[in-house]
Amino acid sequence: LIAFMAMASCLSVVVSGHLRQIPAGGLPCELFALGIATKLRVGSNSTAKASSDFGRMVTAAPEAVLHPSTPADIAELVRFSASSPSPFPVAPRGQGHSARGQSLAGGGVVVDMRALASRCGHVNVSAGGATASPYVDAGGEQLWADVLRATLEHGLAPRVWTDYLHITVAGTLSNAGIGGQAFRHGPQISNVLELDVITGNGDMVTCSRDKDADLFFAVLGGLGQFGIITRARIGLEPAPKRVRWVRIAYSDVATFTRDQELLISKQAREAGFDYVEGQVQLNRTLTEGPESTPFFSSTDIGRLAGLASKYMTGTIYFIEGAIYYNESTAISVDQKLRSVLDQLNFEKDFLFTKDVSYVQFLDRVREEERVLRSIGLWDVPHPWLNLFVPRSRILDFDAGVLKGVFADANPVGVILMYPMNRDMWDDRMTAVAGDDDVFYLVGLLRSAVVADDVEQLERENEAVLAFCVNEGIGCKQYLPHYVSRDEWQRHFGDKWSRVAELKAKYDPHGILSPGQKIFSSPA
Ligand code: FAD
């Protein structure tokens, strides 16, 4: 044995005068002879970045990261793995804003989808006309913030938004994409008209409700299991210019949920708020949390803490609502707001309003990100737990979790609680909705400020899940994370056999998105 030469992650080894290539990692050497070889990065700088995610709870290092120039590059990679005698995992990664390693590919290849944005990325708007409805064709790698910017140039915008816009189109469509407009228009996946997908066999397929519908429905909410989305066609509506943004406080959970459900009911869908969410401030949050927030001034927080102290549980709930308007409807916005508020039973004098541009409203979490970054609370572990809780058990959940398990919980983070209508979800899609005709998202979005917090927060999360099981609450995880096949089967329920069948059809080697840990993967 005479010499070693490093060629990507293969070693060229000269043995007795003959050049032989052996893989230095788990990837086959032939991979580095493909046309995409120059776009594969194996250096630790690249692989380290793709080894973790926003959650900072899981790490898994890939052998290489692909920086594709076109969707065809991704297809070449997937086709190679699928036809290799030893297939390796491939995970498309958007912004890597998952919390539990869902975009990782230990021992395989991560596809940095964002590389497409700078090379061939696109957001093309079709403004529609007398007979056609407007839509946008957006690369799966695009950030929702960029989709917003491009569509607004045409006075248009998608109907449903996640709270945070600096995540990718395909990353949210792989889950569902929910927010305060979902009660009216369904999750983002309900607003998709067509997709370009690279399957786990490396085939490039354009699919819709009418063409290759099984792939279309599989991929929406499909947790990256059936294909890599490279383009999504999404319906648009005329964009408003401004938003009247309100928060109203409640001390009683039954009144809070009754009012929320009124606001998302059929009659309110016609004439009420355009956006409905809700938050919970636990006992200690108002006294030990930040002195002010981008929404509440320190005076507001002081008043709210005073309100909380009047009640034994100290828990305060907010409905967050928004009414969209523009020049022609500005004159009636106050009247509309008054007529909506007149039907509600919030704490007198605890109405907080802001008037902001549509972009400021949609991009509001960016401001919170800036604040959190400035105090070192953004790049910390996020043991988040999101649950869909059926309407019929939300009060039990409140009593057992928010006033039980969390009675003394760490106040750092946000707790979301808002209802959605199940009839706006399409059961043919892989995404799993909550039970009951109305179900709540309860987002336990807490941060671990010091390392010890992680264990404590995880213990509390486990206690929450145990409570849900023991009390038969019927919770479903959103952005799900399970470790066993049984749990995944329970999660998908009636959908499981279909999910397994479609996986066998579209990703028979189990290559795609192994970080979800649903199926066995090759590595
Ligand atoms: P990644 O984390 O990169 O990927 C997520 C999954 O999708 C992985 O399994 C990955 O392999 C797969 N994937 C990525 N790209 C593709 C592709 N092109 N084709 C197929 N599969 C792909 N969610 C909501 O619904 N509503 C909210 O309001 C909301 N707010 C959030 C706020 C913050 C601050 C954060 C951090 C997250 C929030 N989320 C919300 C969750 C977010 O939607 C998901 O974590 C989403 O997956 C993040 O997108 P991403 O681009 O970072 O995806």
From TrEMBL:
Gene Ontology CC, one term: extracellular region
Keyword field: FAD, Flavoprotein, Oxidoreductase, Signal
Residue ranges constituting the FAD-binding PCMH-type domain according to the UniProt record: 58-239
Reactions mediated catalytically: N(6)-dimethylallyladenine + A + H2O = 3-methyl-2-butenal + adenine + AH2
Signal peptide, first to last residue: 1-16
Entry's Gene Ontology BP terms: cytokinin metabolic process
Single GO MF annotation: cytokinin dehydrogenase activity
EC number: 1.5.99.12
PROSITE patterns noted in UniProt: FAD_PCMH, OX2_COVAL_FAD, PROKAR_LIPOPROTEIN
Subunit structure: Monomer.
Record-stated family: Belongs to the oxygen-dependent FAD-linked oxidoreductase family.
Name listed for the protein in its UniProt record: cytokinin dehydrogenase
Taxonomic source organism: Leersia perrieri
Taxonomic placement: Eukaryota, Viridiplantae, Streptophyta, Embryophyta, Tracheophyta
